[in-house]
Amino acid sequence: MPTLKLRSVAIDTYRENVVYLHRGCTLYRSEGFQALNKIEIHKEENGQPVIAVLNIVEDANITAPGELGISEQVFEQLNLPPGTPVTVKHATPPASIEAVHDKINGEALSYEQYFRISQDIVENRYSKIEIAAFLVGCAETGFERDEVLYLTRSMVETGDRLEWGESLVVDKHCIGGIPGNRTTMLIVPIVAAHGMLMPKTSSRAITSPAGTADTMEVLANVDLQPEELRNIVQQQRGCLAWGGNARLAPVDDILISVERPLSMDSPGQMVASILSKKVAAGATRLLIDIPLGPTAKVRTHRDALRLRKLFEYVGDRMQLELEVVITGGSQPIGRGIGPMLETRDVMQVLECRPDAPMDLREKALQLAGRILEFDADVRGGEGYHIARDILDSGRALAKMEAIIEAQGKNTRPLQLGRLHHAITAPRSGKITMIDNLQMASIARLAGAPLDKGAGVDLHKKTGEHVEMGEPLYTIYAAFPANYEFALEAARQDIGYTVKETDSK
Amino acid sequence: MPTLKLRSVAIDTYRENVVYLHRGCTLYRSEGFQALNKIEIHKEENGQPVIAVLNIVEDANITAPGELGISEQVFEQLNLPPGTPVTVKHATPPASIEAVHDKINGEALSYEQYFRISQDIVENRYSKIEIAAFLVGCAETGFERDEVLYLTRSMVETGDRLEWGESLVVDKHCIGGIPGNRTTMLIVPIVAAHGMLMPKTSSRAITSPAGTADTMEVLANVDLQPEELRNIVQQQRGCLAWGGNARLAPVDDILISVERPLSMDSPGQMVASILSKKVAAGATRLLIDIPLGPTAKVRTHRDALRLRKLFEYVGDRMQLELEVVITGGSQPIGRGIGPMLETRDVMQVLECRPDAPMDLREKALQLAGRILEFDADVRGGEGYHIARDILDSGRALAKMEAIIEAQGKNTRPLQLGRLHHAITAPRSGKITMIDNLQMASIARLAGAPLDKGAGVDLHKKTGEHVEMGEPLYTIYAAFPANYEFALEAARQDIGYTVKETDSK
């Protein structure tokens, strides 16, 4: 078999393996390759081939005949130096694709079938198109509860698992859609100060203006290896780290990268996604927060209940005891939206300052309280008071500072976006609604979370009165282009509804 | 809005619009773009934006900051010179994607919804992932007959149509899967010689070793513009051209480019695909040939009947009268597989040579006869005899030669692949089966249809006896690599089943 020399092509094709072949290359002609054929790349010694989609190139500066150009993703997976000879051939369709066709035809699949599909997905044997076909095949009309369980198990089994050696390992997840909702950074110190094990790994923001990992990174290093995590958690009982270094439920990330462009968010996939990550992270108790509201991810109480039932069904069968709380999701929590602004809110609460955002403090205490009640020795209803004591006594702040030291305090100077502008009320009246989606969008355009000092600082919340011209919120940006885009978005849709009232 | 300068990137991304942005580009940072975001490219003057998927580049030799690198497909669609300033922004999801979500959730869609989806698809607003979601949503379990009709209509309406000004315009389609089945090149001359209008446009092979267009191209130019087609058909009553220059049902080609990697072939999609092309081509009568056999596309009589009913239902409602014939599909038709070899078979039949492949002659006469019976003046059952007379009298040959002259005789010297090897029988006995898929595969590896002289020449058919060592078929290839691959494939699976018999 003729070989091709590897050549790194500096193109990020985002979670899809792409390789490049020159149209004049002999191998291209003979194998009947055509752009978008899937091929297997074999290293000299036997091993797992890497699957990729083929694009054909006509510029030898990108890839010349005799070379195999590989995108950044492929380069990482192959882990071979440029110039290495490799062989390529047509990729046989993944064996599990037949199960996908069965699913499309309305059949229920077994655990073994979900496992094989997950295996093939994690080995990059599935193109985005095939993943889309799988996801749509599983869409609501045809995804039995047991199938959600099988898929969740498969997603755990095709990745690594963290083990903590204790029977009580707690975790928390918020379904999301509410900007500024940084309760995790309060809950972990409170719960760890109590002595409960809460090794929290979080993701970076995908579509929101800040994820827990992005926000914590303002204060400390979050990029920790599993061994470091273990040490920190052993000492401190908790951590706030980025989950990307442990290979937890990797199929989840791949599925999400296709679900998102499709705006698909079926309950079954949501449950499988969340629970697979938590089980892989070693949790034995999980608190799930479902914020409800017209612009939240879950919009009706009925949908929230249905989701809860599915969480309970799957969790119970995976040795993950969980509690679901349905909370208010009608406006952003706290005042800051964006990493530094949210960190400010969190520190204000930990420091028990009088100007701390009360809604964030209250929600964190409620949720921390529920988590504390996973402890057999804590009476039902007592959790909140214990949490409040830990917070008011300063033990939560001390624990946070200890966690920060253990992970590695951030010493890089950070500052709020130097370009800022206050958006003012268009009329006097009462604030009746704040659009979560629009506020998050403005914060992202302003540069969050990439620019840690970018985002939106809310001065007014729903129910409050404003005078015309009074600042509703301030936009912070680090770069002029972001600044302009965010201002323009706010001009087009201010995100606040102010209703005139006759009297104040 | 800041602009980017267009830069042509010589990458063929095959029916998916891809553009390239440098990671250091200000626009990338500010807009929150991420690889695989969909973006809209706007020209300076208002017009239809071109939608594309974004890949991020880190090599300024491919695309530098301030530039928008565009793949070959995008370059063709934008039709602007490199260096032209354009603006880009996030593509709003196509409005019709909501209908796709409804379909995924099990609802039946209206004509208007299918039309809007088709419009968005033809305007490149759908990524491959979204098209996959649409196709799977329509999969067998949820695609009512009326929906097949609506989709077919939409696929016609979102392209161009050919009109011939006569009430009787005939066409033919074979469901496929049978190599060497070049009846069209016999039927058109026969039917045109009778005076019936048969303006045949065909496609090039996608997965088979030769399409009608590839094979006809051995004899004449097939790349004709609609106006040229019209002139030729006016004079000759028929033509055998490539359909790619008239924009007939373009959504069909886009859907096929996603269906194929997914190996999806639902009856509804098949019917919509075939009938939309025929209606757009201006046909008023259509003969559909469904070859049946264990390795053909349609495998059981029941499936063939179900397909027939669906064809009839949709055809009747689109002023396309059709007849469906179910024919034998258990082995290749004729002897040649590959453009030149199949042309040889066709010419042998037209020239009425005694060594002409009888199965090809017979099948062509049967089908031509059925088409002739679309003529009100031809009695049922008479068509075959009229066809045979036209063939035996030499009028079909004369008509073919006239069509070849009119389209433009091919003057390039062509020759059979100079590398050839006979594959011999592994034992003496009777040939009980020939695997259509394997023979087609060997022919493709040998280089067909790209290399017109490549392919397979069958010496023996099923039912015939062979001695051990006797040639079953000969492989022809133009290039050593193809030659080796084809031989290797034949070694691994000869494609013929020879059963020992006690007596000859």
Automatic annotation (TrEMBL), chains A, B:
Residues 430-497 form the Pyrimidine nucleoside phosphorylase C-terminal domain. Pfam families: Glycos_trans_3N (PF02885), Glycos_transf_3 (PF00591), PYNP_C (PF07831). One of its GO terms (biological process) is pyrimidine nucleobase metabolic process. SUPFAM superfamilies: Nucleoside phosphorylase/phosphoribosyltransferase catalytic domain, Nucleoside phosphorylase/phosphoribosyltransferase N-terminal domain, Pyrimidine nucleoside phosphorylase C-terminal domain. Its EC number is 2.4.2.4. The keyword Iron-sulfur does not apply. The keyword Transferase applies. It catalyses: thymidine + phosphate = 2-deoxy-alpha-D-ribose 1-phosphate + thymine. InterPro entries: Glycosyl_Trfase_fam3, Glycosyl_Trfase_fam3_N_dom, Glycosyl_Trfase_fam3_N_dom_sf, Nuc_phospho_transferase, PYNP-like_C_sf, PYNP_C, Pyrmidine_PPase_CS, Thym_Pase_Put. GO terms for molecular function: 1,4-alpha-oligoglucan phosphorylase activity; thymidine phosphorylase activity. Keywords: Glycosyltransferase, Transferase. SMART domains: PYNP_C (SM00941). GO terms for cellular component: cytosol. It comes from the Bacteria. This is Putative thymidine phosphorylase.
